């Protein structure tokens, strides 16, 4: 499947650049709708530390916690990072359920991964009363997390391309929690009338998506991808 996962023909998420001020971010997006931010940070130094070779050299023997790629992600498995990269980091099997697919995202040991995160430049905006927490991940082509929701946050692509699907809190999407995003895209998405389709866009390296509190979202990695999220809790 590598390289064959489709990219959407158009982006329906609003974009903003470095001219967006904090006050305008709060007024237009923070509590109401997602936005893709371009050029707001420079993470070239962080990106240079996130190549396959650099990450294996720094973290190869350390255990990483994998989660099932379903809506609830309850099941966790610990494996050495090198084993994940060399044996489990594969394109998504279209016939495999999300509850049977293991995915590295989010459950980072900050004692081990903290030195890497010190080089990351987060987006310059915050929601009043929240504090940021990082979630770093690596995943194969066609993988992703099906629809779910939580608090607000940012997500930046470091390597690869990541397709996002988003619905507002009052518009629950039709999906099965153990179906992968890839299966949903192949089977459910084509049946949706235009008015029932999600906001969607593909993020490329250096682009950051902001999603507000309780917005439904699903992700689909179009390539082997490295990404980091900043959750505002």
UniProtKB/TrEMBL annotation:
One function term, GO molecular function aspect? cis-regulatory region sequence-specific DNA binding
The protein's matches in PROSITE patterns, at most eight in alphabetical order, are given as: JMJC
UniProt domain JmjC: residue ranges: 99-233
Origin, by domain of life?
Answer: Eukaryota
Q: Which InterPro entries match?
A: Cupin_8, JmjC_dom, JMJD6_ArgDemeth/LysHydrox
* An example Gene Ontology CC term for this record: nucleus
Name under which the protein is recorded: JMJD8 protein
* Native species: Sylvietta virens (Green crombec)
The top of its lineage is: Eukaryota, Metazoa, Chordata, Craniata, Vertebrata
């Amino acid at each position: 499947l590598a390289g064959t996962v489709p990219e959407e023909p158009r982006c329906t998420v609003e974009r903003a650049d470095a001219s967006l001020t904090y006050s305008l971010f709060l007024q237009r997006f923070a509590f109401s709708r997602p936005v893709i931010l371009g050029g707001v940070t420079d993470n070239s130094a962080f990106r240079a530390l996130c190549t396959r070779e650099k990450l294996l050299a720094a973290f190869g023997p350390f255990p990483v916690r994998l989660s099932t790629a379903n809506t609830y992600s309850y099941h966790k498995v610990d494996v050495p990072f090198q084993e994940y990269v060399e044996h489990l980091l594969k394109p998504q099997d279209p016939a495999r359920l999300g509850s049977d697919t293991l995915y590295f995202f989010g459950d980072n040991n900050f004692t081990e991964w903290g030195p890497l995160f010190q080089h990351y430049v987060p987006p310059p905006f915050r929601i009043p009363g929240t504090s940021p927490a990082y979630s770093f991940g690596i995943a194969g082509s066609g993988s992703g997390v099906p629809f779910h929701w939580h608090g607000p946050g940012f997500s930046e692509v470091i390597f690869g391309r990541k397709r996002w699907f988003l619905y507002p809190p009052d518009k629950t999407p039709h999906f099965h929690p153990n179906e992968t995003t890839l299966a949903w895209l192949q089977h459910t998405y084509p049946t949706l009338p235009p008015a029932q389709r999600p906001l969607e866009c593909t993020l490329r390296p250096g682009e950051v998506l902001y999603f507000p509190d309780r917005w439904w979202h699903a992700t689909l990695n179009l390539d082997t991808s490295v990404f980091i999220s900043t959750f505002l809790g």
